[in-house]
Design a protein that fits this description.
This protein is of the alpha/beta class. It contains eleven helices and eight strands. Strand 6 and strand 7 form a beta hairpin. Helix 2 packs across helix 9 and helix 3 crosses helix 5.
Length: 314
């Protein structure tokens, strides 16, 4: 199945048929090839395949929640462009001083400056697995990032598009609460905090985002389509020969997570689970039946063509 990587096709997953249709179905990226979960393996996959990932989605689609789940379960670095920029400014690096001067003037940072902010970190990661958040946001930035990564012989390997219907997002943003210091997101409909109004890990109070209202959401949605649709079309085109574009559909992060998790496990077998994740999943005393089922599933995978699960405990 070498054709999977020859043209970097767009791949679409959908858990169930749904009556909700989003505007993104009308853009060129929606012309995804039919694909099934068990065809994700290819002859080019091996334990050395590095995950270098971008995730796109409308405001409120669940990018932050799903990225956090990946980082919690797997040995993957999450890189925030905003955090990197603030670090450069705080450390008074050359690009940090340049960026601070531009920001002080109230101007947007040019694409080449943003690339320097991101590239300085990516170049130090060698063969680490990573997810980049907040960059690129435009087609021009996407092309700059691609050219830089290819020059470093470290091209993107996965681009994920979260396709959640507009009306679904609009109906749930009023239920969203966030822990601003960590970025953890809760939803009172399907992802409630343990104690209403307070963060699960720190106990600190949760707040609402000021832009979580229909009017501002509509403006942000238009901005998303204007800037991101050309980017997705670029990653879906034959010009993109290396990164695989996958579109995942669902109404909640809980629906999309199993799809995303399966893509990472099957396409990037070298991405290891964190020890804490394995221990929690395998040896939870609160659900012995689930624990036994999980052990059997691992053994079945080891007996077929999957990697040896014991190596994740080293």
């Amino acid at each position: 199945m070498n054709f999977l990587f020859a043209r970097a096709p767009s791949i679409r997953f959908a858990p169930t048929a749904t009556a909700h249709r989003s505007i993104s179905h009308s853009v060129s990226v929606s012309k995804a090839l039919p694909f099934y979960l068990n065809t994700l393996r290819s002859a080019e996959q091996n334990d050395g395949k590095v995950l270098r990932m971008l995730m796109f989605g409308k405001p409120g689609a669940g990018k932050g929640t799903l990225s956090a789940r990946l980082v919690k379960k797997y040995d993957i670095l999450s890189l925030s462009t905003g955090d990197l920029l603030r670090q450069h400014i705080a450390e008074r690096t050359e690009v940090g001083r340049q960026a601070e001067e531009i920001v002080a003037q109230g101007s947007l940072l040019p694409d080449d400056v943003m690339l320097k902010v991101v590239a300085s970190k990516l170049e130090s990661l060698n063969n680490r697995h990573w997810i980049l958040d907040g960059f690129p946001r435009t087609l021009g930035q996407g092309k700059l990032l691609d050219a830089h990564l290819q020059n470093q012989n470290a091209p993107l390997s996965l681009v994920v598009n979260l396709d959640v219907a507009d009306n679904v997002i609009l109906s749930r943003i009023s239920d969203r609460w966030v822990h601003l210091p960590s970025g953890r997101v809760y939803n009172m409909s399907y992802n409630r905090p343990k104690v209403d109004g307070f963060d699960d890990e720190t106990g600190e109070p949760l707040t609402r985002r000021p832009d979580d209202n229909p009017e501002i959401f509509s403006r942000r949605l238009k901005q998303f389509y204007d800037s991101t649709s050309p980017l997705l079309a670029y990653y879906a085109s034959p010009v993109n020969k290396l990164a695989r574009l996958i579109t995942l559909q669902g109404e909640t992060s809980d629906e999309i997570w199993p799809q995303l998790d399966a893509v990472v496990r099957r396409s990037f077998p070298g991405v290891r689970e964190r020890i804490s994740s394995i221990s929690q999943r395998r040896y939870s005393l609160s659900d012995p039946f689930a624990m036994e089922q999980e052990k059997r599933a691992i053994m079945r995978g080891a007996a077929s063509d999957g990697p040896n699960p014991s190596k994740f405990l080293n």
